[in-house]
Amino acid sequence: MTQEYHVTSLVVHAAPGQVANVTEDINALAGADIHAVTDEGKFIITLEGATQSAILDNVEAINALSGVLSSSLVYHQVEPLEEKSEETP
C-alpha cells in the first residue's frame, strides 16, 4: 500500500466573541495549523494528514465546534510518500 501525504487549506468563519475558544479548539486538533485570524472571526487553516479520512475527520470536527459558523475548503493536495529502501542513506 502506498502511503500518502494530504494537505488541505480552509477558511473558517467563527462568531467574533468565540475567536479565543475556536483558536484553542483548532490548535488541539492533530495536524491543524492556524496561519491567520482576524478579530472578526475569520481563520486561515491548513490540515495535514496521512489519509483523506483523517483530513475529513478534522474538517467535520472544525464544523462541529461551538462558535464556528462556516468553513470553506480552498485547496487539497495529495502526494505519494516515497518509501526508503535499505540502500537509501
TrEMBL record:
Keyword Chaperone attached: yes
Keywords recorded for this protein, A-Z: Chaperone, Cytoplasm
Top-level lineage group: Bacteria
GO CC terms of this entry: cytoplasm
Residues passing through the membrane, by range: none
Location of the protein in the cell: Cytoplasm
Example GO BP: negative regulation of protein transport
Keyword Cytoplasm: yes
Chief location category: cytoplasm
MF terms in GO: signal sequence binding
Role description: Chaperone for NapA, the catalytic subunit of the periplasmic nitrate reductase. It binds directly and specifically to the twin-arginine signal peptide of NapA, preventing premature interaction with the Tat translocase and premature export.
PANTHER family (alphabetical): CHAPERONE NAPD (PTHR38603:SF1)
Self-association state and partner proteins as the record states: Interacts with the cytoplasmic NapA precursor.
HAMAP family on file: NapD (MF_02200)
Record family assignment: Belongs to the NapD family.
Protein name: Chaperone NapD
Primary gene name: napD
